[in-house]
Amino acid sequence: MSKQQITNNKQVKAIGGETYLNKNCWLVKNLNSLPYTRCQYCELRFRHCLFLQYQVISALLICFALALFYILDKKLSFAPIIIVFAIVIIYGYFFNKSTEKIIKSNFFEKKAKEELKTLSSKLEDKVAEQTKEIKAKAERMLKLVEMRSDFLDIASHQLRTPTSVIRGTLAMMRDGDMDKMKPVERSKFIDGMYQKSIKLEEIINDILMASEMETGSEMNITTDDQIDLTDLVNKIISEHIFDAQAKKLQLVWQKPNESMLIRGSLKYLGETIDHILDNAIKYTIQGAVTVTLAKNVDKVLLTIQDTGIGIPKADQAKVFNKFARAKNAKNAYTDGSGLGLFIVKEVIDKHPGAKVWLESQENKGTKVYLEFILNK
Fold it and tell me: What pTM was computed for the model?
């Protein structure tokens, strides 16, 4: 039987349907059928039946009329009996017609009220749903406006320095000033312009990624990749060895002797760990950057420790906020979006059971901790 047939069958058996049986009615229940057509619109008990009330009233009227004739004539003739029953039959006919109309009208009125109530409820739900959507869009627009304002602020500060360096170097090349320089000096200017272009690209990427996170756009961060954290960290460290050597820093990797498997996004976790390690090297003037990876029962803890400038205590509570940078970090490096640790926190929060936090002391260094659920 199709879904449509089942629905139609239910409608037929419901009140008002052709095969509806009022189980509240003693007469219908015992007959297992409808005594009258109007019964298909009724759900009253038998004692409340209008036709039963008519029959009771009719019986009382017959008894009263016959008693009255008997009292007046001292006998019951055939004519009065015929008259009484004729009146009762005529009265019954019109009563039957009127009660059928009353029952039907009551049924359709009740049905109309129920449908109106259902429609009203659906409209309320629809209005509530659309209101919710409008509020969500309005909130998203507010976030976009905030992002626009923040972007303008960043553009007027962090983006200005690298673009000024690039423009200045290009102007020197255009005017021929670079041709008068020694090769070493010329190479220094070109390398500076190259480094600033990389920094400019990093800032723009950070702003775009933060914008996606802040406005609730889909970033397609799936956490279903099975990741060997030992291999991933080893690869990232190998990419930063030359950066550490260039600053005459020790890059210590306390590599475990086993694989440590977790579930996550290979792409975004790689970028997150890369950013933290890059920060550790960038803000360390001398000493070492130490990376350790250890597991404890069902958790994996990655620690990146440096001997750098550290984070002032007053700034530590807000370093994971959007566009937040510690005061000493701004002084050390004017370039920077202040979005790196914000993005790190957002990515880690999207990984079930993962956490990120840090410990730091100004002028002594910083420890950043990344904790993940071990995939056994």
Answer: 0.54
